[in-house]
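Write out the 3D structure for:
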Amino acid sequence: MANPYPIFLNVHLHYNGVFTRHPHRYTGGETFMFTDHDFYGMDLHGCCEFLERFVGEPFEKLYYSSRDLTMANGLRVITNEMDYQVFIVVSYQSPERSIDLYLDHIGEGFEDWFDEESDESG
């Protein structure tokens, strides 16, 4: 499938770090900015294979952070092809701006923390 967009995305990859709960953030690890890869031309499986080859190890979960939102409000897990396509659409809404992609190497389940905190406060 040819990419209908004239430019590649700027994807800021965060890997080999961990998510922390208080405050919500991704700490440690390394980062890399992809500026010349066609994420649009990949499906979720192809993207995960590409990222695993790049970082040299498997990961459990893949997340992206919506622009202009805090991590607590903007972090989204990519679990299926529909989620991946939403990531692509969101990314191309402002392709000149980078979008953050996070690898969870231990499968911590960061998205479940928000539900637990709601239960604790409720």
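The two ends are 47 Å apart (CA to CA).
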